[in-house]
Amino acid sequence: MRFSAAMTAEKWLPGQIAARLAPLLRRVDAVLFSTDERGEAGRMSLVAFAVRIVSAAIAFVSQVLLARWMGSFEYGIFVLVWVSMIIVGSLSCFGFHTSIIRFISEYREKGMLDDLRGVLVASRLFVIIASTVIAALGMAGVWAFSGRIESYYIVPFFLGMICLPMLALSDVLQGLARANSWAFAALVPTYITRPVLILVCMAIAVAAGLAPTAETAVLASIIATYVTTIIQLISVTQRTDRRVPAGPRNIRLGYWLKISLPIFLVESFFFLLTNADVLMVGFYMEPDKVAVYFATVKTLALVHFVYFAVKAGVAQRYARIAHGESEELGGFARETVSWTFWPSLAMGVLVLLLGEPLLGMFGPGFADGYPLLFLLVAAVVARSAVGPCESLLTMSGYQNVCAMVYAATLALNIGLNVLLIPTLGLWGAAIATSAAMIFEATALSFTVWRKLGIVMVLFIPTKRTVENA
C-alpha cells in the first residue's frame, strides 16, 4: 500500500486541521507519486532541491576548512582561479550542455533515433576536443603574458587549465542526465562528489606535509575533477546505452551548433553575470579581499540554490510542452514561480539570521562581509519572484532574445563594477551585482510576457495572450 500524506493527515490529525492541510498535502502526493510530466518535473526539482541543500552544506564546510588551512591570501588566489576554471569549463561546452536537453526530448518524441544516437556521441566528442584546445590556448596565454600577471597567480592558473576538459564534459553529462530525468546522476557528481573529493584530497595533501597553498588546492581539485567525471561518464553512458537501442548515427553538427550557439551566449552571459563580481573584485583588489567577498557569496549560495534546483527540474518539461497547448505551458510556468519564490524567501531570512556567525567560521576578518548579505539576499529573493524565465525562453526557441537580455545585464554589471569598486570596494561589487540581478529579472519577465503572453511575476495573477513576436 502506497504512502499518502493526505490520507495520513486525515487519519491522525483532528478534522479541522486535516481539512486545512488537505489541499497542500494533495499537492505533495501529486508531486511524489504522479506519473505524468508535471509530477516528474516536480520530483526532479525536489531531488535537485535536496541535493543542493546537501551540496550547499558540503561546499560551505569545505570552503571554511580550506580558508582555515590556507589563510585568506592563498585562499583568495585559489578562489579566483577555481571560479575562472568553472566559468571557462562551462563555456567550453558551447551551449551543448543545455541544448542537448532540447534535442533529446525532441528526437525521442518524434522517434528520430538516428539523430538521437548522433547527438549523444557528437556532443561529448565535440566538447572534449573544444575544451582541450581552449585549455592549450589558456596555458599558452598564461605563459605569453606572465610578465603582466601577478606572480602568485601564474602557477595556479596554469595548473587550473588541466581541469577544463573534465569540467566541460561533466556539464554535458549533467545535461544528458537531466534530459532523462536522472536527477541523482545529473547533480550528485558535480555538487556532492566533487567538492567532497576536493576536500579529502586537500586533507591528505596537508597531512602528508605539503604546504596548504593555492597550488596544492588546485592539484587536489584536478584529481577530484578527473575521478568524478570519469565515473560519471561510465555511469551515464551505460544507462544511455540501455535506453537507446544500437543503430546508425546521423551527425548534424552544423544544425546542432546553430541551435547551441545562441544558448551558448545565454549561458556565457549568465555564468559571467553570476561570477562577474568575484572576478572584478579579483581584478581590482588583493586576494584577501577576494576571499572575504567569496565567503559572503558562498553564504548567499544557500539562497541561490533554490532557484537552480527548480531550474534543473523544469527545463526538460518546458522543452516537451513548449510547442503544445499555450494554456498548459502558461499554467506550469506560473506554478514554477511559486516553487522558486517562497523557499528562497525562507532561506533568505535564515541566512540573514545566521550570516554573521557563519562568516566568522571562515576565520578572522571574514565577518566583514556580513552587511553585504542584506543587499544581496534582497536581490536574490526579488529575482526568484519571476521564476526560471531564461529556461522557459530557451526551451521555447527564444534563446536569441534571451541572450540579448543577458548581454545587456552583463554590460550593466561590469560597468557598475568598474565604476563602483574603486571607490566603494566590496560594497561597490554588492551594489553592482544587486542592481544587475533586479534588471535581469525585470527584463526576462517582460520578455516572457511579450513573447509568450505569460506573466512570470508571483504577485500579478493576470495573463494575456499575444502573438509571438
TrEMBL record:
<feature type="transmembrane region" description="Helical">
    <location>
        <begin position="182"/>
        <end position="210"/>
    </location>
</feature>
<feature type="transmembrane region" description="Helical">
    <location>
        <begin position="369"/>
        <end position="386"/>
    </location>
</feature>
<keyword id="KW-0812">Transmembrane</keyword>
<dbReference type="GO" id="GO:0005886">
    <property type="term" value="C:plasma membrane"/>
</dbReference>
<feature type="transmembrane region" description="Helical">
    <location>
        <begin position="341"/>
        <end position="363"/>
    </location>
</feature>
<keyword id="KW-1003">Cell membrane</keyword>
<feature type="transmembrane region" description="Helical">
    <location>
        <begin position="46"/>
        <end position="69"/>
    </location>
</feature>
<keyword id="KW-1133">Transmembrane helix</keyword>
<feature type="transmembrane region" description="Helical">
    <location>
        <begin position="75"/>
        <end position="104"/>
    </location>
</feature>
<feature type="transmembrane region" description="Helical">
    <location>
        <begin position="151"/>
        <end position="170"/>
    </location>
</feature>
<feature type="transmembrane region" description="Helical">
    <location>
        <begin position="125"/>
        <end position="145"/>
    </location>
</feature>
<protein>
    <submittedName>
        <fullName>O-antigen/teichoic acid export membrane protein</fullName>
    </submittedName>
</protein>
<feature type="transmembrane region" description="Helical">
    <location>
        <begin position="290"/>
        <end position="310"/>
    </location>
</feature>
<feature type="transmembrane region" description="Helical">
    <location>
        <begin position="216"/>
        <end position="234"/>
    </location>
</feature>
<dbReference type="Pfam" id="PF01943">
    <property type="entry name" value="Polysacc_synt"/>
</dbReference>
<dbReference type="InterPro" id="IPR002797">
    <property type="entry name" value="Polysacc_synth"/>
</dbReference>
<keyword id="KW-0472">Membrane</keyword>
<feature type="transmembrane region" description="Helical">
    <location>
        <begin position="426"/>
        <end position="449"/>
    </location>
</feature>
<feature type="transmembrane region" description="Helical">
    <location>
        <begin position="398"/>
        <end position="420"/>
    </location>
</feature>
<feature type="transmembrane region" description="Helical">
    <location>
        <begin position="255"/>
        <end position="284"/>
    </location>
</feature>
<dbReference type="InterPro" id="IPR050833">
    <property type="entry name" value="Poly_Biosynth_Transport"/>
</dbReference>
